[in-house]
Amino acid sequence: MEKYCIVQTTTNDKETALKITSNLLKKKLAACIQSHTIKSSYRWKGNLENSEEIILNIKTKTSLFEKIKKEIEENHNYETPEIVSVPILDGSEKYLKWIDEETE
């Protein structure tokens, strides 16, 4: 298992994105969170949907995934939020050390 990962979630609500971001950073569960507005197309309950969403890319340690998942689930506005972890296979030593220093 890789030591570092990027946890990704999306929401259509700016306040939800800000709350999740703030909580994760305050609790030292993430070192950095990037947010971007994106257009999403997907199937939901038998319908094709197109919407504008905010994606959060959460830079963290793999060992914190379950705590991050719980925090997202408790504060998310979606019935079934996207919560996925993508391993960081390699990175600059200084950046990865910074993630260590900024997370619990």
Q: Structural class, judged by helices and strands?
A: alpha+beta
DSSP strand count = 4
Return Rg in Å.
14 Å
| Quaternary status | single chain
Would you state the CATH class? Alpha Beta
Roughly how much helix do the residues carry, as a percent range?
A: 25-40%
Q: Spans with pLDDT under 50 lasting ≥5 residues?
A: none
Count the DSSP helices. Answer: 3
Order of helices and strands: EHEEHEH
Strand content: 35-45%
The major beta sheet can be summarized as:
4 strands, antiparallel
Give the overall form.
globular
Model description:
- With 104 residues, the chain is of the alpha+beta class.
- The chain has one domain (13-102): Alpha-Beta Plaits.
- The protein contains three helices and four strands.
- Strands 2-3-1-4 form a four-stranded antiparallel sheet.
- The protein is globular and about 45 Å long.
- The two termini are 18 Å apart.
- The mean pLDDT is 97.
What's the layout of helices and strands?
Layout: E1 4-11, H1 14-26, E2 32-44, E3 47-61, H2 65-75, E4 84-87, H3 93-102
Antiparallel strand pairs: 1-3, 1-4, 2-3
